[in-house]
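Page 42, continued from yesterday. The earlier attempt failed because a stray header line got pasted into the input along with the sequence. Redoing it now with the clean sequence only.
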Amino acid sequence: MPNPQKQPLPVSNPLGTTMRIEIDPEAMREARRGRSLPARQPIRDSRPVVAVSPLGGVDFQQLLQSVYDGAFVTERSGQIVVSNIRANHFFLAEPGQLQQYSIENLIRGADESLLPTILSTLESNRFVFIQAHCLRLDGSSFPADISVNQITLGGQDYLSFFVRDITVRKQQEERLRTGYAAIQNASSGIAIAGLDAEIGFCNPAFSAFFGDKRCNFRDFLCQPELADEVIAAIWRGESWSGDLELIDSRGGVFFGHTAVTPSLDEDGALDGMVFSVLDITVQKRAQQQLQEYAAELRRANTQMQEELKMASELNIALLPRDFERFPRNAAPGENLLVLRHLYHPSGTIGGDFFDVHELSDHEIAVFICDVMGHGVRSALVVATIRGLLEQLRPVANDPGTLLTQLNAAYMSIFKQNAGDVVFLTALYLVFDARNGTLRFSNAGHPRPFVLRPGSGEIVQLTCDAAALTPALGLFPGARYPVSTSRLAARDLLLLYTDGLSEVENPGGEFFEAHRLGTTLRENLRCAPGDLLERLLHAAREFSAAPAFSDDICLLAMQVLDPPSGPFIP
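This time it went through. Structure tokens are written below.
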């Protein structure tokens, strides 16, 4: 330990001065290395231990034992003569055990110069105050304040040492230092104010926001009346937080996330408030921009939905209406056919389409298609197909030629590539009501059903193996041959898209495989319109879902007896 440094004596009051001795912090580092005193073994074992009778009488002993601090009485040499209960507790000693040691042995870092310094100081009638770490008998240490005085007992001079364990105080001081450093270095502005919001203390960040002038927090608010709300919450003992528009030291406005908490004194009484302000201007501006963008997006979405709704209504309006009579100029009771349809898009705009066109007073053409997917893109393809059909009216009586030319024209328009294929299945047929002849060409579309109420049969139209052809939009050179069949009076032809056949139930089963045939048999003799409604109802029950995942288009055409009498195909 370096020699203790003596403080200069004030001339005005030499008897009232105190010499302060601080043991070098290096001694503390030695303490951390774990050096300890040998337990129950005198450090100065060369000196005989003298049995000392109780000093000062009974009253002195009672006083010594009642002192709050750890107290020692030592000879002028530093040898401990007596210690109180508190000292034994501090140093983890048994009664009488500390009398084996010198006071120098209990102060970490003390050397032979300590006692001469103390004695010379006391001879000048000054007090001695030591700040050091004391060494317990188990080798641990604790910070202490030690006051030293000279005392005369029984006509003999002794030294008295009063030791106070300041571990808790040191911890509190460290916490205060750490907390103060954290406040000073915080990026948030922190201020302490009275109950009237008058600022008394602030950290550098708070000063950077509002300047060094101490004033009321309401002066920083763009809406000063909000301060009353904050103060009222504090008076209720509640915290308050929110985003405020604040005025900075340059008169500019910024957004600050502000938290205010009650400040309590040592008795727990409310004595002020603590402000914390975090600049969130960048985040707030970004949030406002996002809200504006979201509002614009909602407006655009609303407009788009309105346009899609209009497009859907137009798309449905352009679909052919049910034929009330065929041929169109037929008198009541002279109808040759009944046609009914049911169109159920899965979204706002569907990708299914059909067209019915009267070729003559005895021939009718029916077209049905299903574009891959649904929505706007599919609707655009449907519009294209509708326009191409109008251009191909000159070959409308030849199903094979019409589909072949339709495929070529469609592919030339869209110029498909392998990464962006939009194909569609289609079926085109021409029916001659005079003799029941049905000529059709199929481009990968589900095969129609023929329901024969007279015989109770349900069959599907079949194509020759050579007539199996791909969907439209896949191969530019594809050719679509014609197949033929016949319909008798009362026969009903059912055309549909795969939105019906591929309806799935919760178990992953398809409607076509498990319920379509049954539903058709149960409704074999229904009128065309009723049949379509019951098919849709059965599909909805089968799926057990709130909506279909794909568009559904159904078309039923039933042959009636001609006025001249039933024909036999």
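Notes: The mean pLDDT is 83.
Reminder to self: strip header lines before submitting.
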